Amino acid sequence: MGQVVSKDGTAIAYTRIGSGPALIIVDGAMCYRAFGPATALAEALSEHFTVYTYDRRGRGESGAGTPYDVEREVEDIAALIEEAGGSAHLFGMSSGGTLVAEAAHRGVNADRIAIYESPMIVDGTHPPMPADLPARVERAVAEGRRGDAIKLFMRYVGTPGYFIAMMQVMPMWKKLKGVAHTLPHDFALTGEFQRGTPPPADRWSGADVPALVIAGGKSPEYMRNAQQYLASALPQAELTVLPGQTHMVKAKVTAPVLVEFFQR
Q1: Helix or strand holding residue 114 (H, E)
Q2: pTM score > 0.85 for this model?
């Protein structure tokens, strides 16, 4: 394990494997190096890239830093890029994709960026996020009800009730509760894009780098529509759809697409 110190002094833990151009993977909500898809994807990409996976602040072995601000997470990515030699490709999954777009927009030194299903609701094909949901999740965390915070989030993203019930008796539930306090961070990052209307066309005008936006072919219509909008809003983006994939995309499907894009 390595460690970098972000601009505000927060220690960010990372793992590096492989060789070749630097590629940083940015996790989505509640995921970190010990839990989530990043490790398997890093292994699949390590033949072609020096791959960095890291624990977003407040998760795993990284420090939290207070108070939370999206800019601090952008600074974390900038610190990792510096550690990688001053420039890197970025790939983000779910809210991690939102963070990648934001980091590029705010000027981190990214060569190319790729995003898998940034969570947005940009039209009427899905109800907008309830206005009180972030506050309800934050209150549950503040009151020590981390399990309730997870359930609120999972119900919102469409996880079936029977699966939520099963998860609570599985080892993964403890890992999820360990990072439940970071759910408000993801709402702070993505909330403006959950309103059922498209963001301003110039919202990511600063992200003027080659970009790939990826959607799953079996994902809901609203998610696919959102990725199409994001691809149109990023200055140099293209859209690709992976047949048969959902939001829980498989590394063996994603890796070849990323290799082809980042090696252009």
Answers
A1: strand 110-116
A2: yes
